[in-house]
Amino acid sequence: MAKIEIIRGDITRLDVDAIVNAANRSLLGGGGVDGAIHRSAGTELLEACELLNGCNTGDAKITPGFKLPANHVIHTVGPVWNGGMNREKELLSSCYRQSLRVASENGIRTIAFPNISTGVYGFPKLEAASIAFETVQGFLTDHPEIEKVIFCCFDEENFGYYNKLNCNKTLIKLVKSTSEIKIVADLASTIWNEYYVPIIGQEQVNYMVASFQSIEAIEQQIRTEHQEYYLIYHLAEPSGYICIKPAGNDLFLSKFYILKEKRGTGLGKGGLNFIISRAKELGANAITLTVNKNNINSINAYDKLGFKNTGSVVTEIGAGFVMDDYTMRLDITG
Ligand code: ADP
Predict the structure, then answer these.
(1) How far apart are CA 321 and CA 294, in angstroms?
(2) Does 33 sit in the ligand 1 pocket, CB within 6 Å?
(3) Model confidence pLDDT, tens digit, residues 18-61
(4) Is the dihedral of CA 131, 132, 137, 140 positive or negative?
(5) Rounded distance, CA 116 to CA 93, Å?
(6) Which CATH number fits domain 172-331: 3.30.1160.10, 1.20.120.1200, 3.40.630.30, 1.10.10.10?
C-alpha cells in the first residue's frame, strides 16, 4: 500500500516517476507552478502540450518530463474558486482522481502533487488540502500499484494544513471486494499472532486464523451471515479492522483489532466512534463483545472506552480448543 509523504519544496526538483502540473485549460503554460515546470522541462514540453488539444477542468493528460528529473508530467486543470457553489470541490477532487488514474494507466509508481488551485485560482487552502487528502487516500485503497504519493507544498501555510490533516487522518471503509477481504485476512494473521500467541499459544492461534479469518471464512461471514467488515486505514495503510453483527437490540462487536505498531495513534477511539455511529444507524442501543480473560491490554482498552464487564462465557471453538472470555457492554445513549 502506498505511503503518503508531505514535503515542503519545489516540485520541479523531485526525482519521481511523475509530477503533477496545476495547468490551465490551454495547457500552453502559465504562471506559478505551471511556469516553473515549463522553465525546468525546456521548450520540448510546450511542443508536446501543443499536441494535446487542451484539457477540461478536472481532467488530466500526460507528457514526458523532458529535462525534469521526473520522467513524466501529468497536467491537470484545477477549478477557479468562485464562491464554492460551482462544483469547485467536486472538480478539485476529480483533478486528484484523474491524475492518479492516468498515472496508474501509465505504470507510474511514484507521483508528486502541488497544492492544485490554491495559488491564483484562489481555492481556500485548508479545504483544498482536505479534499486532496481524502481523494488520494480513497484512490490508494483500491490501487496498490501506486507506491508513493508526495504532497509537495510550496508555502508554509499549505505545509501546515497538510501536516495537521496527516496527524489524525484515518479512513474506515466497508469491505466489499475480494482484494479487500485479502487485506483483512493478511492483517488478521499478523495481528492475531501479535495479540494472541502470548495468551493462548501458537497452535490455537494457527487454528483460529485458518478457521475464522481465511479469505473463504470471511467471505462466508459477509455473504451468508450478514456480518459487516470494515478496514481501518491510517495514512493510506491498512492498520486495523472491525467486524460487527446485529443481534436483536444489541450490536455484537465481533472483531476490533489494530496493528501493534499503530497503537497510540488514536485509531482505537476513532474506530469506536465509528462503531457507535453505525450502531445508532442500525437502531441498536448497546454494543456487546467478548474478550479473552488473559488479554489484559484489550480489557483495559475497552474499560477506558467506557465498556463495563458483565460476566463470563466459555466457548468451544472446535478442535478441542476453548475461549475463556469476559463479556463486556457499552450502553448507547442519545
Ligand atoms: P493554480 O492556478 O492551480 O492555483 P498556481 O501555480 O498559482 O496554480 O498555484 C498552485 C500551487 O502551487 C500554489 O500553492 C503555489 O504556492 C504552488 N507552487 C508554485 N510554484 C511551485 C513549485 N515550483 N513547486 C511546487 N509548488 C509550487
Answers:
(1) 15
(2) yes
(3) 999 999 999 999 999 999 999 999 999 999 999 999 999 999 99
(4) positive
(5) 10
(6) 3.40.630.30
Amino acid at 238: P
Q: Per-domain residue ranges for the chain?
A: 4-166, 172-331
Annotated catalytic residue 331? no
Tell whether ligand 1 has an atom less than 6 A from the beta carbon of residue 141: no
The protein residue with its alpha carbon nearest to ligand 1, atom 20, reads: 33
HSE at residue 115, side-chain half, CA atoms within 13 A, is 29
Residue 175: which of 266, 240, 248, 235 has the closest Cα? Answer: 240
Give me the amino acid identity at 131. Answer: I
Residue among 227, 234, 34, 195 at smallest CA distance from 116: 34
| CA 213–ligand 1 middle distance (angstroms) | 46
Give the predicted TM-score (pTM) of the model.
Answer: 0.68
